[in-house]
Design brief:
- The protein is α/β, with parallel strands linked by helices.
- Helix content is about 40%, strand content about 20%.
- The protein has a six-stranded parallel beta sheet, with helices on both faces. A five-stranded mixed beta sheet has the order 12-17-16-15-14, sandwiched between helices.
- Helix 12 (about 290-300) links the parallel strand 16 (about 280) and strand 17 (about 300-305).
- Helix 1 packs across helix 14 (about 330-340) and helix 11 (about 265-275) packs parallel to helix 12 (about 290-300).
- The protein is globular and about 65 Å long.
- The relative contact order is 0.13.
């Protein structure tokens, strides 16, 4: 039995997508897969037991049905943090080890998913680096592009984990960064001993969110075309500019939500006629009757929110960068995309399976 720890340089980097892609691929090849997430930060009750939402979703995808408390032996909630910071927990890794030993019985490959970054949980010694060193896990580290890549972080991890680190996967890479990545970053990483085992380009669908979910996350409500709440938003535009300039940007951004004040009917009408995904009206200002009627006819949802345009734009940016992998379409699309770009042979060789 071999084990692979899937960690990352930061939260929301794509650990779930990479883990399920690997799990499904190994299952297709006939391997018996086990899975656990030692530390969870999304508490979810299953009957009288406390588990982690991401871990429960993952085992559902992989067709497993393990005890939630074994699946995620440590779930971080407010009470846990209070006790942890006051030093009430000792040797939490023993609890993880007991669950790991039980879940890994009769398995060929054990997939172990990290939480947050590789150093998240250091305050109580359950961070990824500590667990990898203690259990000798082979490790795959995901680094998601966010203005830049964390190449220094990856080099430091390689120095610390040595041969336990099989390599990295670079995720969400925009097209305009590919040349710099191939000419500078990848050669640097390879020179530091960090193998690049996959480069995943930015994909709008993977960062999309349903309008209904978006309205809830923004603290707003849909006031027109509620039946279209399942349409997805992939990006957003701020409609504070002149109409002519707005139209130029709007044509380049399909499936965008348009954030605009409730009193800017000129921009609202342009967005509606341009078939935007939805209008997000700020300042709790209702649109006029013409806009309401036109949105109803065109089937474009209008979301009314209390916050100002700047605040909503900040929230939107954060939401779209942290959208969870839940929809069936995303799972199918994402695993197919990642599966075509990961170097499975190199991963299997690193695990001693090839």
């Amino acid at each position: 039995m071999v084990s692979l720890y899937i960690g990352s340089t930061s939260g929301y980097s794509g650990k779930n997508l990479i883990t399920m892609t690997l799990g499904l691929k190994f299952q297709q090849e006939g391997y018996k897969i086990g899975y656990m997430k030692p530390v969870g930060a999304m508490p979810k009750r299953v009957g009288d037991k406390l588990g982690d939402e991401d871990a429960l979703f993952m085992q559902e995808i992989l067709g497993l049905s393990e005890d939630p408390e074994k699946l995620t032996p440590i779930v971080v909630d407010h009470d846990f943090k209070i006790k942890a910071f006051s030093g009430q927990y000792k040797n939490l890794t023993e609890k993880i080890e007991a669950a790991y030993q039980e879940l890994s019985k009769d398995k060929d490959i054990m997939l172990v998913s990290g939480s947050g970054s590789m150093y998240s949980g250091r305050y109580c010694n359950v961070d990824g680096v500590t667990l990898v060193k203690k259990f000798g896990f082979k490790t795959l580290v995901i680094d998601r592009f966010d203005k830049e890549l964390n190449y220094d972080y990856l080099a430091v991890l390689k120095d610390e984990l040595k041969d336990n680190m099989l390599g990295c996967v670079l995720n969400d890479i925009p097209n305009q960064f590919m040349e710099e990545l191939n000419s500078m970053i990848i050669p640097f990483l390879e020179n530091k001993g960090v193998k690049v085992l996959g480069v995943i380009p930015k994909d709008p669908l993977m960062g999309a969110i349903k309008i209904g979910d978006l309205a809830k996350r923004l603290g707003g409500r849909i006031i027109v075309a509620n039946e279209k709440a399942d349409k997805v938003v992939e990006n957003f535009l701020i409609g504070t500019m002149q109409v002519e300039n707005f139209m130029t940007h709007f044509k380049k951004n399909p499936k965008a939500a348009v954030i605009v004040g409730g009193d800017r009917s000129d921009v609202q009408l342009v967005a509606l006629e341009g078939n935007c995904q939805c209008l997000i009206l700020t300042g709790n200002l209702y649109p006029n009757d013409i806009i309401m009627t036109r949105a109803e006819v065109l089937g474009v949802p209008i979301v009314l929110v209390r916050d100002d345009t700047f605040t909503i734009a900040k929230k939107m940016d954060e939401i779209l960068s942290r959208v969870k992998l839940r929809d069936v379409i995303k799972v199918q699309h994402g695993t197919k995309l990642v599966g075509s770009l990961l170097d499975f042979n190199a991963i299997k060789q690193g695990l001693g399976l090839a």
